[in-house]
Amino acid sequence: MAGELMTAAAKQSGAELLPVDSEHNAIHQCLRGEKRNEAKRIILTASGGPFRTLAREDFERITVKDALKHPTWQNGSKANSQPASISLPDP
């Protein structure tokens, strides 16, 4: 949504955009200063949220309601479905 605006503003001011989400920042730190062709692939793992115990064959039946039943965080629909836009409270 605001990515183009943020990128343009950072470029104009000479600022560096840094990812604040822990997983994305870890990837950023690993790749910082490296050439793009030095990484064959990136595997991003996660806790699994409400689907961590769900059988693979059941994934095609996941609903929005299911996605909002996070076992640790209670942040509401927007926060649970757009995690890069929130800061998580202590569990």
Features:
extended, single chain, disordered C terminus, 91 residues
Give a verbal description of the structure:
It is a single chain. This protein is an all-alpha fold. The protein contains four helices and no strands. About 35% of the residues lie in helices and about 0% in strands.
Average residue pLDDT: 75
> What's the Cα radius of gyration?
17 Å
Could you list the spans in which at least 5 consecutive residues all have pLDDT below 50? 84-91
| Most strands sheet | none
Total number of beta strands = 0
User: Looking at the structure, what is the overall shape?
Assistant: extended
Instruction: Tell me the number of helical segments per DSSP (H or I, 4 or more residues long).
Output: 4
Euclidean distance between termini CA atoms: 29 Å
Q: In percent, how helical is the residue content?
A: 25-40%
Name the helix and strand elements from N-terminus to C-terminus, one letter apiece.
Answer: HHHH
Q: What's the layout of helices and strands?
A:
Elements: H1 3-13, H2 22-31, H3 64-67, H4 76-81
Task: Give a brief rundown of this model.
With 91 residues, the chain is an all-alpha fold. The protein has helices at 3-13, 22-31, 64-67, 76-81. Mean pLDDT is 75; it is low at 84-91.
